[in-house]
Write a sequence for this structure.
């Protein structure tokens, strides 16, 4: 059977655009001879729709969209994702459903069984789990239609769940599996996903066609990379990552492909670029501004933003103070020259001094301290936001994950911005990304990569004055944040006890600051934000 | 049977303090002749512990605390709440459990069946639902031990759930019900709670002892008000709201009480005061600073903060500009005089002008606009944060719910602050609170309550220049936010179609701004924050 994979960049709540894209893809698939065209999970409304799902009007728009789409399936079947109402009084009001459309009508509705409710996922907040299992019959074929997580409990080996949907369908002897997914990017996710698809094909001895959503929804970057695997689990087709695609396969003619996948660092790079691009596009903006400090974080954000938005659309503002080293300006100028992007220089000294004058009656002759350091950062934040407000730029935040973790940043200062591009990228990973970018030519000036990191808010300040070396800090943070290892486990792994205590305390004491941070592009399995929910006033290790 | 209700202010993750409080209450209850002492839900670790629950070390601290507490139950039984590990591989790793302790040991562990996963609640993120039902036998009595939500599906009439835990226990003919709760305040919650308790007592013909957590955990204010109801559902005892209490009843001697409850407005007032008080206490701070504008919102925050922290601990900073009306300073001075609290005056004009000078090369002669308005708000934010950083104050945010809803506020300006005291209180409710506060004496100067609201960021500015009148705005917002009515329903209710479209668009377009807002004390059934999760880039009605 000829099946088209329609990997589309869906926009949450943008029904007109999603519908138009889906209908256009049905037309293309039909013109190319496909018998079925498969879309991603909740493709009609976008994933994650979050609490929009609690509005009856939103569900009505989903329903009317499905009917409009169905009208375009006279000669080709389409499988789209949309919520379905639960007709029974008991349980949640909705199902997360796949609609099998054909002959202009809804032929069958398949409900999702396994509802991820962890990390960034809140599906049990909205959806009732399915308990009835039936294949779809179409043109002499029996099709096992599954929704995303439904294939992630192969033979009940996933401790999270007690049902294996495909085991339930096994007695019907389905001919192949279709899966509608909205599986967000994280740097290891693609390997996990491929393994799970292969394990399913091997267990049931049938092929699978898996379509993933592509495009970013604020923090979550959906990487596409839709897959077809044969009955032995060989990958026979993989759609491109991070862009829309429509391709056709024939389940009767599957040939093992030479499956080449971009490297991990390249995928992180591409995820960040797409994250920026879609944040702007979906909010209807085209221009970014950022503060270029001469450090590695803002250099990397500038480079990524130029890739996402075009060099003419990213304004760098250099905001030197009298604590700034001479190279902070020189390195920044060299970078914008390499990229060909515009810049402004705005000195912060006069504004900073004016604050000190204004505050003199209160501050009197108290020594220079954190308050004065923060004023400088907030002057920068205010100047950048002024540029944003005056000229319609979105301010990009340049905080990295190591800083965000330990609270090494000024709230309302360098923590300003609409989107935190690097908030899920540790400092050590930032250097790796820069080396990747410089692999052929020196785009990011070498001196930016070799000098010691500094906030330059007091004379000769270095990050290492306040923080452990990033090499060791990032290792502790990774174990605590991504791996959820506690203090006893960390010490058992060989980390110094005092260091562990100090780092964990810094992380826990700064929940209040991260609470007000910009949304962070998620590239790891555990990013700050929706996927990590911590009490602000909790006193565990704090 | 003599049962003590121990309504304690538990601090999330503060095991040492929670344990000490619980052990002290056991001692007091025993000294007063109680046979059982009942605590609130997850009383050992605090509710909500959120993702702390994902740390094995955190669970170990819960377990060792339970054992330490058990050692104090030689002559009295204690029922405490703590997570319990799920020994089965399938399903979530934990149960939300009640531990029945006696004779120095854990006698029985009862698991929670109904796991709220909506609004601010994420229980299915962590816990496996219970499927086994058994009463506790103690001194010839059969006790039905339930955890919070377990009593909220009386006879299966709650559409969210399919199991009624007490129906499952009915055949054992329990003598009375114990319930451990962590039920956060919202202005109608106490009525709902009382009704549910009564309905349970009446359905099963037995008394119930219900202990609620008291105290605030950042956004969530637990109001206490623990209840004992007799077999007919009469309230025989109600512990005080918003403070710790320990009282004893005898299940064999229950007499209907004269149940007088504070008014709704008084409860909102008390919830806000406790919310401030506990935020400071649990973070280890004692002093607050806020910007006093002469408007009603900051006046109310000042009053509430003085109630919570004491008049000597709340510094008002008046931050006039040349757009400020003369009465903005006069009214503020009258208020601090009434309250006897300290104040400073810091003029923002010089800082504001310095920004305009610094930005002249970029802004050139472009007309005064939003950018310049926002600079003023951000100068105020920076000055207030400077005071906070220099002297160890926490900045209180004064944004109200109406403004937060429509995005009428400056991010990093008047949206600064560690805690948004009024972010869940509509503008119209703010006037009601002020009238309540002024019911005997004029504390908040009358002129603050009668003048037209204004941000005073440009000449003669009024809120009504940009927003519908608050009377009508708040009604639309309430229907959209609390009642989740969509545009069609709102028009059908009689609201003007253009107004509805405009207001809903404003709400949806400002998710990006609220994402970075301070945590908001929740007093309604639907507050901005954890309980309302909206896509930032979603285009539904936006």
């Amino acid at each position: 059977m000829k099946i088209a994979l329609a990997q589309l960049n869906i926009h949450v709540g943008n029904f007109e655009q999603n519908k138009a894209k889906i209908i256009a893809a049905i037309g293309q698939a039909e013109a190319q001879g496909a018998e079925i065209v498969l879309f991603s999970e909740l493709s009609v409304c976008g994933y994650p729709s979050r609490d929009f799902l609690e509005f009856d009007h939103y569900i009505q728009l989903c329903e009317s969209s499905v009917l409009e789409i169905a009208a375009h399936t006279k000669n080709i079947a389409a499988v789209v994702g949309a919520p379905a109402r639960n007709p029974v009084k008991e349980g949640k009001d909705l199902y997360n459903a796949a609609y099998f459309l054909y002959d202009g009508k809804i032929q069958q509705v398949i409900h999702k069984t396994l509802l991820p409710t962890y990390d960034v996922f809140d599906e049990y907040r909205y959806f009732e789990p399915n308990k009835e299992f039936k294949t779809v019959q179409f043109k002499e074929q029996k099709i096992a239609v599954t929704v995303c997580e439904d294939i992630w409990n192969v033979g009940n080996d996933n401790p999270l769940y007690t049902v294996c949907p495909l085991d339930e369908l096994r007695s019907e002897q389905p001919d192949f599996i279709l899966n509608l997914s909205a599986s967000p990017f994280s740097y290891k996710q693609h390997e996990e996903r491929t393994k799970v698809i292969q394990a399913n094909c091997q267990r049931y001895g049938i092929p699978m066609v898996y379509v993933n959503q592509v495009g970013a929804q604020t923090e979550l970057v959906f990487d596409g990379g839709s897959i077809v695997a044969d009955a032995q689990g060989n990958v026979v087709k993989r759609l491109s990552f991070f862009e829309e695609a429509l391709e056709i396969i024939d389940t009767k003619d599957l040939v093992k492909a030479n499956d080449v996948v971009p490297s991990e660092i390249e995928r992180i790079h591409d995820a960040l670029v797409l994250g920026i691009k879609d944040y702007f596009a979906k909010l209807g903006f085209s221009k970014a501004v950022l503060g270029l400090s001469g450090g590695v974080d803002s250099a990397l954000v500038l480079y990524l933003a130029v890739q996402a938005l075009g060099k003419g659309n990213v304004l760098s503002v250099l905001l030197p103070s009298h604590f700034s080293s001479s190279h902070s300006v020189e390195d920044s100028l060299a970078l914008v020259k390499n990229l060909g992007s515009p810049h402004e220089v705005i000195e912060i000294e006069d504004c900073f001094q004016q604050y000190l004058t204004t505050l003199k009656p209160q501050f009197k002759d108290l020594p220079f301290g954190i308050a004065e350091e923060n004023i400088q950062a907030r002057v920068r934040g205010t100047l950048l936001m002024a540029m944003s407000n005056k000229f319609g730029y979105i301010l990009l935040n340049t905080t990295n994950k190591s800083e965000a973790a330990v609270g090494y940043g000024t709230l309302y200062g360098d923590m300003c911005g609409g989107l935190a591009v690097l908030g899920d990228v540790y400092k050590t990973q930032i250097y790796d990304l820069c080396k990747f970018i410089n692999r052929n030519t020196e785009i990011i000036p070498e001196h930016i990569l070799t000098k010691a990191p500094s906030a330059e808010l007091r004379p000769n300040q270095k990050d290492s004055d306040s923080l452990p070396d990033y090499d060791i800090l990032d290792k502790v943070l990774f174990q605590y944040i991504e791996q959820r290892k506690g203090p006893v486990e960390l010490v058992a792994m060989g980390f110094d006890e005092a260091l562990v205590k100090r780092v964990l305390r810094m992380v826990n004491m700064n929940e209040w600051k991260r609470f007000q941070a910009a949304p962070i592009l998620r590239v790891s399995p555990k990013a700050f934000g929706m996927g990590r929910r911590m009490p602000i006033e909790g006193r565990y290790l704090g």
About this structure: The mean pLDDT of chain A is 97. The domain at 268-463+509-515 of chain A is CATH 3.40.50.620 (Rossmann fold). Chain A is about 35% helix and 15% strand.
